[in-house]
Design goal:
63 residues; elongated; 87% helix; mainly alpha; 0% strand
Length: 63
């Protein structure tokens, strides 16, 4: 049980580090792109789908 909790904690730490790294690399450019590609419901859905396919993790996309 402890190893499961430890594994989840390490996974969440990795997702957090990935998110912070992407924010530092992309910065304002990423923010502008997201505003452009998430204006409507359909474009938001499509953007989320494509990002999930590229990253291959819906958790990373959500974070």
């Amino acid at each position: 049980m402890i190893s499961v909790i430890g594994g989840i904690a390490i996974f969440l730490l990795g997702m957090s580090l990935l998110t912070n790294g992407l924010k530092e690399i992309a910065g304002e450019t990423l923010k502008k792109w997201l505003q452009t590609f998430t204006k409507g419901t359909f474009t938001s859905l499509l953007t989320g789908l494509v990002m999930t396919m590229l990253v291959q993790s819906s958790t990373a996309t959500t974070i």
